[in-house]
Design a protein that fits this description.
Blueprint: H1 13-22, E1 47-50, E2 56-64, E3 70-71, E4 74-75, H2 76-89, E5 94-105, H3 110-126, E6 130-139, E7 147-157, E8 171-174, H4 180-189, H5 205-214, E9 219-223, H6 229-241, E10 244-248, H7 256-265, E11 279-282, H8 287-296, E12 303-309, E13 318-321, E14 327-329
Parallel strand pairs: 5-6, 10-13
Antiparallel strand pairs: 1-2, 2-7, 3-4, 5-7, 8-11, 8-12, 9-11, 10-12, 13-14
Helix pairs in contact: 2-3
Length: 342
């Protein structure tokens, strides 16, 4: 590898290899986390820093370059705020504050910037999350494409949810239809009609707060399938735990328009990003109860899609049973899936 390609930013196999080569392998083990916490020693949706009374500070940071910056269901501002809120939530944290950095191109319309910032502030207010700091920069015309936003979410957790806790017997649940955001952005970038598509971008506070209160010890892992989609998230879990993750394709909630647009453009819908969906690994004996509780909260399309199994032969793999009964390995996404999807 001599140059960066778009594939390196797609959230798939190339991204993971780049981070390992350029960053993770260069940092001493003792500096990959704060003592007693979690960091890039076991990369997750955020980091954990121990504080008083057995609690943890949850910190998550991300950058957003989505194109187009306005799309059905949201905009880059709402996406940035929801993304960091959700990354804190899936770590078992309750979001309390956020910092942002906004970099815009010279000549960017003030009215568009106002719309984006208003969207960010409105979303933060709806979640009662404080905006406590940030930065603003302007780049000369042509040195950046319109706007880039980064956000850092901060939360408090009494019971962190860490992917290291996945174990055989866990069931895999999703909170709703997958691939909605990715399909929408993909269609827009190809100039296709998007009347039947809409990004699912939203905060998941209404799911996680009651879920963690009702089942404080049952959730063993959680994540939001953004870049790389469900396939990348499950492959990360399988590799991390050394187990086999088995998935039943017929149980995965996908809307027909997402299926059709994916087929038309030659993309596996399981590689597409969701920005308002959670994936959970929960104790098998309470999985059905968790599912019914999720539906009672309004997540009517939630489903149990698979389970974690012990397997010497297929450890670290995700195997999917097709709708016609065949089995195949669900590989992590590679190459340029959808550039600037988030």
């Amino acid at each position: 590898m001599s140059k960066i390609t778009l594939a390196h930013g797609a959230g798939g196999k190339e991204t993971a290899e780049l981070l390992e080569d350029l960053i993770f392998s260069k940092v001493k083990d003792g500096l990959k986390r704060v003592k007693g916490g979690l960091g890039i020693d076991h990369p997750d949706d955020g980091a954990l820093i121990p504080i008083e009374n057995g609690k943890f500070l949850v910190v998550s940071t991300d950058a957003y370059t989505v194109s187009p910056i306005f799309f059905p269901g949201g905009d880059i501002g709402k996406l940035a705020v929801c993304g960091s809120i959700n990354d804190v939530l899936v770590m078992g944290g309750f979001p309390i504050a956020m910092l942002d950095t906004i970099v815009v191109e010279e000549g960017f319309p003030i009215d568009m910037l106002r719309r984006i910032i208003d969207s960010m502030v409105e979303t933060l207010a709806s979640e009662n999350v404080a905006l406590i700091g940030g930065d603003f920069k302007v780049m000369p015309r042509g040195y950046i494409d319109k706007i880039v936003i980064s956000t850092t979410g901060i939360g408090i957790s009494e019971r962190p949810i860490v992917d290291l806790n996945i174990q055989p017997g866990n069931r895999i649940l999703v909170s709703g239809f997958l691939g909605e955001h990715g399909a929408t952005i993909m269609a827009l970038q190809h100039g296709l009609n998007t009347d039947v598509l809409k990004s699912d971008v939203k905060p998941l506070t209404g799911l996680f707060k009651p879920l963690m209160a009702r089942f404080p010890n049952a959730i063993k892992a959680s994540g939001d399938p953004t870049r790389g989609g469900l396939s990348m998230l499950l492959n990360n879990w399988a590799k991390l735990s050394g187990n086999l993750i088995y998935v039943d394709e017929s149980e995965i909630p996908l809307r027909e328009p997402v299926r059709k647009y994916s087929e038309m453009l030659g993309v596996d819908p399981l590689h597409l990003a969701s920005e308002g969906v959670a994936v959970l690994a929960v104790d098998g004996d309470v999985a059905e109860e968790v599912l019914e509780f999720m539906k009672s909260l309004g997540f009517n399309d939630a489903a149990i899609i698979g389970e974690v199994r012990r397997s010497e032969e297929f450890q670290g793999l995700v195997v999917i049973r097709s709708e016609i009964g065949g089995l195949r390995v669900l590989e992590p996404p590679t190459g340029e899936i959808v550039p600037r999807i988030c």
